[in-house]
Amino acid sequence: xxxxxxxxxxxxxxxxxxxxxxxxxxxxxxxxxxxxxxxxxxxxxxxxxxxxxxxxxxxxxxxxxxxxxxxxxxxxxxxxxxxxxxxx
Length: 88
Known about the structure:
cell membrane
């Protein structure tokens, strides 16, 4: 079963690298905001896989906090996009 966890973590790592490239390249601020949101989801996924592999229920608190931060970021990005759409 550890092979499944290793492969999953490797794929999540590759996704994090690709998302970080999108974060750096942009080209718009909205692309960067969405890349940060995707990074938050990938981080939560990686911590969940690690917690499952090591049978650590204490990581649930960290998962909830990071997920809430990602949610707040998404709502803020949607508000920013709506505000910009109203100005044009």
